[in-house]
Design goal:
The chain has two domains: 265 residues, Rossmann fold (3-Layer(aba) Sandwich), CATH 3.40.50; 203 residues, Rossmann fold (3-Layer(aba) Sandwich), CATH 3.40.50. The protein is 40% helix and 16% strand. The protein is built from 15 helices and 18 strands. Strand 8 and strand 9 form a beta hairpin. Helix 1 packs across helix 15. The longest helix has 21 residues. Bound molecules: adenosine-5'-diphosphate-glucose. Adenosine-5'-diphosphate-glucose (ADQ) binds next to helix 12.
C-alpha cells in the first residue's frame, strides 16, 4: 500500500501552471491527496508555517524564505556554489560560511515542515540541488519513508566536488535517499565514481550502493517534454510571431541567460558564419534570453558581454533592411515560442554543460516532418546522449559551430528528414509522463529505510539497480 506523493522543489507551480513536469506529475500527485511543497514567491518570516496556496487539483503548500535566506541559501550556496560547481565553473564558485550555514538551516527547516504533513506510507520526491541534504534532515527526524531525489543539472566530477569546503558531505547527503535519479548515463557514471572513491560506500550485487546502513539505487531518467502538447502548439495556426517583421530565414536560440548555455560563443560563431556566407544569404539569429539571477555578478557580466558582442556584430554586418542578430532579452509565451521553433531553419544549443536541455527537444517536436529544420546541439548537453542525429558540435570551437550553421542551412531535404526522424524518436521515448512514471515506479520498488531512534538505520532497494535505464519536465532549475 502506498500513501500520497509529496513533491518538494524550490519553485512551486502556480495555480494554472502547465509546464511539462507539472502536467506529468498532476495525476500521481492529485490521487491520494498529494502535496507539492516549495518556496513562496514573496520573502517572509522564516518560521515553520506552510501557507496553503490552493487545493485544486492538488494541495500546494509554500514556505517563506527571509531576505537573508534568499541571499545566502538561494543566490548564495545554491546558485553561487552548487550551480557553477556542477557546470564545471569552479572559477565562479563563491565560498562563504554564511552561504553554507543558511543552506543547511533552510534544509533543516523545510524538513521539519515536510515532517508535519508526511505519513509513513507517503512517497517523497525531492527535486534539484537546492535540497541535496533534505533526506538527511528528514532521516534525523526519524522519517523512514521512501525518498527519491532527481538532479536536473549535471552530476559533478570528483575534481569539481573537491572545490566544496566539505566534499565528503555531498556523498553522505545523497546516500540518505532510496533512489537517486540523474539525467544521463554519464551522470550515473560520475556519481558511481564518487561512491567508489568513498570508503564508507559498498557496492551491492545489483549495483546499488550501501552507505552506512542505507542502500541507494542510482539510475538515469532522461527528462523530456509533453510531446503532443508541443506538437499541437506548433501546428496551431496563428499570426506570424514576428508581426510584419518576419525575417526570410532565421536560426533560433532560446535560453535563460546563463553562462552555462554558451551564448557568447554562439554569437561569435554566427559572426564567423556571416564572414564566410554566400553574399545572397542573409539569415538572422533570433536569440531569446530572459534575464535570470541578476543579483549574482556572473549573470550581470554575461548580460554585458552579450550586448557587446551582438552590438559589434550588428554594427559590422547589418544593412538598412537586415539586422543579423535579433536579441530579445525577455520571456516569450509558450504558444508563440512553439510557432517560432517551427519557422526556424535551425536551432542552436551550445551549452558548455547542461543537465538535459529541453529547448533541443522542444525544437525537434515543433518541426514539420515534411520540411524539418536542423538541430545544432552541443555534445556537452545531456540531450546529446540520445539525440545523436542532431548536428553535434563542440561548443568551445566557434569554427565548428560556424561550419555546422552553413551545413544546416544548405542541408538537403532527405538528410533533414532522416535526422529529424532519429531525433524525434528520442524525444518521444523520453516524454515527460513516461519519465515521471518510471521514476515513481522505481521509487515504489525501493524498500523504505529503517530508521532506529538511536540513529542506526538501514534499507534495501531490490529492483532499482543502476543498469536499467528509464526513459524519460518542465520545472527547471531557476
Ligand atoms: P534550464 O537550465 O532552465 O533547466 P532547459 O532545459 O533548456 O534549461 O529548460 C528551459 C525551459 O524554459 C524550456 O522549456 C524553455 O522553453 C523555457 N524557456 C527558456 N527560455 C525561454 C524564453 N525566453 N521564453 C519562454 N520560455 C523559455 C534545468 C537544467 C536543464 C534541464 C532542465 C529540466 O539546467 O539541463 O533540461 O532543468 O530538467
Amino acid at each position: 500500500m502506498t500513501g500520497k506523493l509529496i513533491v518538494v522543489s524550490n519553485r512551486i507551480p502556480g495555480k494554472t501552471s502547465s509546464g511539462g513536469l507539472v502536467v506529468a506529475l498532476q495525476d500521481a500527485i492529485s490521487s491520494n491527496g498529494g502535496i507539492w511543497i516549495g518556496a513562496h514567491a514573496d520573502p517572509g518570516e522564516p518560521d515553520d508555517t506552510l501557507e496553503e496556496l490552493g487545493t485544486e487539483p492538488y494541495r500546494r503548500l509554500a514556505f517563506h524564505l527571509s531576505a537573508e535566506e534568499l541571499e545566502n541559501y538561494y543566490l548564495g550556496f545554491a546558485n553561487s556554489v552548487l550551480w557553477p560547481l556542477c557546470h564545471r565553473r569552479g572559477d565562479l564558485v563563491q565560498l562563504r560560511a554564511e552561504y553554507e550555514r543558511d543552506y543547511l538551516a533552510v534544509n533543516r527547516r523545510v524538513a521539519r515542515m515536510v515532517a508535519q504533513v508526511a505519513e509513513p506510507d507517503d512517497l517523497i520526491w525531492i527535486h534539484d540541488y537546492h535540497f541535496l541534504p533534505l533526506a538527511e534532515e528528514l532521516r534525523k527526524l526519524h522519517l523512514s519513508n521512501r525518498m527519491g531525489f532527481f538532479l536536473h543539472i549535471p552530476f559533478p566530477s570528483l575534481a569539481d566536488l573537491s572545490v566544496l569546503p566539505d566534499p565528503d558531505a555531498f556523498a553522505h547527503w545523497l546516500a540518505q535517499y532510496n533512489l537517486l535519479g540523474l539525467q544521463t548515463s554519464a551522470d550515473v557514471a560520475r556519481c558511481l565514481e564518487m561512491f567508489r572513491s568513498d570508503q564508507r560506500a559498498e557496492f551491492m550485487p545489483n549495483g546499488s550502493v550501501k552507505f552506512d546502513q542505507n542502500v541507494v539505487a542510482v539510475r538515469s531518467f532522461p527528462i523530456g517534454i509533453d510531446v503532443d502538447k508541443l506538437i499541437h502548439e506548433a501546428e496551431t495556426e496563428g499570426p506570424s510571431p514576428f508581426g510584419r517583421e518576419e525575417p526570410e530565414e532565421f536560426i533560433i536560440g532560446v535560453d535563460r541567460l546563463d553562462y552555462s548555455k554558451g551564448i557568447p560563443n554562439r554569437f561569435r560563431a554566427f559572426g564567423e558564419y556571416l564572414d564566410s556566407r554566400p553574399p545572397d544569404r542573409r539569415p538572422c539569429l533570433v536569440q531569446i534570453a530572459p534575464p535570470s539571477r541578476e543579483r549574482v555578478k556572473a549573470y550581470r557580466d554575461i548580460t554585458f558581454e552579450l550586448e557587446e558582442i551582438a552590438g559589434r556584430l550588428n554594427g559590422e554586418h547589418a544593412a538598412l533592411d537586415w539586422t543579423p542578430i535579433r536579441y530579445i532579452h525577455r520571456s516569450v509565451e509558450r504558444s508563440r515560442l512553439a510557432r517560432l521553433y517551427r519557422r526556424a531553419r535551425a536551432c542552436l544549443v551550445t551549452s558548455l554543460a547542461d543537465g538535459m536541455n529541453l529547448v533541443a527537444k522542444e525544437y525537434i517536436a515543433a518541426q514539420d516532418p515534411e520540411d524539418p529544420g536542423v538541430l545544432i546541439l552541443s555534445r556537452f548537453a545531456g540531450a546529446a546522449e540520445d539525440m545523436q542525429d542532431a548536428l553535434l558540435v563542440n561548443p568551445y570551437d566557434t569554427g565548428e559551430i560556424a561550419r555546422a550553421i552553413a551545413q544546416a542551412l544548405d542541408m538537403p531535404l532527405a538528410e533533414r528528414q532522416r535526422r529529424y526522424r532519429g531525433c524525434m524518436a528520442a524525444v518521444r521515448d523520453t516524454d515527460v509522463s513516461q519519465w515521471s512514471k518510471s521514476f515513481l515506479a522505481a521509487l515504489r520498488r525501493c524498500t523504505p529505510t529503517l530508521v532506529v531512534r538511536n540513529g542506526a538505520r538501514g534499507s534495501a532497494t531490490p529492483d532499482a539497480g543502476p543498469d536499467q535505464r528509464a526513459h524519460s519536465g518542465d520545472i527547471y532549475a531557476e
